[in-house]
Amino acid sequence: MTGLIIKDWKLLKRQGRYYGIVVALACVLSLSGSQNFSSFITTYLTFMITMFAFSSFNYDDFDNGMLFLMALPSGRHDYVKAKYVFSILLITGGWILGVLLHLTLFTFRFSLADYLEILPSEPVYLLLCLIYIGFAFPLLMKYGAEKGRNLAFIGLGILAAAVYLIAKTGVRLPALLLTFDRLLQTSPLTALVILTAGCILVLWISCLLSMRIMEKKEF
Q1: 148 with 141: CB under 8 angstroms?
Q2: 18, 27, 203, 216: which one has the fewest Cβ atoms less than 10 Å from its Cβ?
Q3: All residues at 6 or more sequence positions from 53 whose CB lies less than 8 Å from its CB, including other chains
């Protein structure tokens, strides 16, 4: 499994220049935006790194690469585990970079005290991206990189449209979401613990489902 993680890392290192462009763009936008907009750097970097994790599937599908990978002694289960471990480490690393840049730029423009007020919301971006790969990875395993990614984006688009319509039309949110929103305002630490537990559960179920998909998949 370690070899598969190293393989993904070496492949993604080829996009090093693109990483630099993404970080530079995030810094410029964060410096030019308002105080409320400054958190964009964390959300942007975390989401873009999540997209990099998706791109590792493209490399695997290229030139019948999956057929070769499935013939390795590591087996299909280790392939699935490596994808999840690599993606979690990659996304967490991108999030940490985003938080550090956000802290530095926010303190430079405003104040450390103001940043500490929004600090509890920072882990939410990481957890939401990890939950997203929990839903997306089984699709990528089943349908391949291109089709699976398109389905994952469509699902994300539908969710974003639903949230937008709810916000615009004033439709009452389900009681569970309202309770969580109030909890996030009154006790952010408790809300983060609950969201973290939900994230771990989603990733665990997703990993098991991906293993079953890969067991039955023919190449």
Answers
A1: yes
A2: 216
A3: 86, 87, 90, 91, 133
* Token reading at 163: 């949230």
pLDDT tens profile 178-211: 666 676 667 777 778 888 999 999 999 999 999 9
DSSP string of the chain, one letter each residue: -HHHHHHHHHHHGGGHHHHHHHHHHHHHHHHHS-TTGGGHHHHHHHHHHHHHHHHHHHHHHGGGHHHHHHTSTTHHHHHHHHHHHHHHHHHHHHHHHHHHHHHHHHHHHS-HHHHHHHGGGHHHHHHHHHHHHHHHHHHHHHH-HHHHHHHHHHHHHHHHHHHHHHHHHTPPPPHHHHHHHHHHHH-HHHHHHHHHHHHHHHHHHHHHHHHHHHHH---
Q: For residues 119 and 103, what is the distance between their CA atoms, to the nearest angstrom? A: 9
Please give the Cα distance from 93 to 96 (Å, whole number).
5
Summarize pLDDT for 58-96 with one digit per residue, the tens: 877 776 777 777 777 777 888 899 999 999 999 999 899
Q: Which sequence spans correspond to the domains of the chain?
A: 2-216
Confidence of residue 164 (pLDDT cuts 50, 70, 90): low
